[in-house]
Amino acid sequence: MLTRRRFSTRVAAAVGLAAAARLAAADTAPAAAPAIRNVVLVHGAYADGSCWSDVIALLQRAGLHATAVQNPLTSLADDVAATQRILALQDGPTLLVGHSWAGTVISEAGIDPKVAGLVYVAARAPDAGEDYGALAARFPTPPASAGLVKSGGFAQLSEEAFVRDFAGDLPTDKARVLYALQGRIAETLFASRTTVAAWRSKPNWYAVSTQDRTTSPELQRFVAARMKARTIEIASSHVSLISHPREIAGLILEAAKPATVTG
């Protein structure tokens, strides 16, 4: 397995430029197929699979086969099962990508033998059996937490919290549309604990959102360092996959390079 290391700022910048060049080239010519061709993208809480749309378009242009999971957000077991159904459809080595809550999902589902690597985007990354809420409590409380509205056993963000704290670097009109599309989560969802931590045995990458008001950037840096993830930082809100799709697609393309494949 390739030795893991954390990207320096300069290396991360170079990676971003290289990825941008590959994506620009893909606008006019077919890209050579990467070593890992399949990508499964898993959305987090207060979202649905459509949040990956711009990233998917870039990955398809670069020659990858991308599929988004539609999580029910009713339990960890249900979300893992939804992800496993999509993994079963893949025809070879696959990158499993998770945003936000989906970091928990891919940490559990990522032990699937088809999964060749894990990419975390402003995501949770619990260890096996870890009380992630207790870990998060060691870091600054993000403002979005105050905007959680509960009803009938489910929860969602208020419109104000969604627009300001969840998707703060998007145009207001677009953020309000995403608010209307948000997935409602079971109130007990975040209390779930994983039984495994796939990042302990699979290559992994992490995109930190430095302007995040939903998940503490300090917490993101902690879990990325704990995983020894190859890490980039993006000056973004929690939804970097929407506001900075090229940077996220570029990180996924780096993860799909031949040198990252393990035998």
How is the largest sheet built, in terms of strand order? 2-1-3-4-8-9
Top-tier CATH class: Alpha Beta
Work out the count of structural domains: 1
Helix content, binned percent: 25-40%
Query: What structural class do helix, strand and pairing data support?
Result: alpha/beta
Separation of the first and last Cα atoms:
8 Å
| Mean of pLDDT | 89
CATH superfamily: Alpha/Beta hydrolase fold, catalytic domain
Catalogue the unreliable spans: 1-15, 25-33, 259-263
Radius of gyration: 17 Å
Structure write-up:
By secondary structure, this protein is of the alpha/beta class. Helix content is 37%, strand content 17%. The strands form two sheets. It has a six-stranded parallel β-sheet, with helices on both faces. The chain has a three-stranded antiparallel β-sheet with strand order 5-6-7. Helix 1 (9-26) packs across helix 10 (245-255), helix 2 (53-61) packs across helix 10 (245-255) and helix 3 (76-87) packs across helix 4 (102-109). The longest helix is centred in the N-terminal third of the chain and has 18 residues, at 9-26. It starts with 8 loop residues before the first helix and ends in an 8-residue tail after the last helix. Mean pLDDT is 89; it is low at 1-15, 25-33 and 259-263.
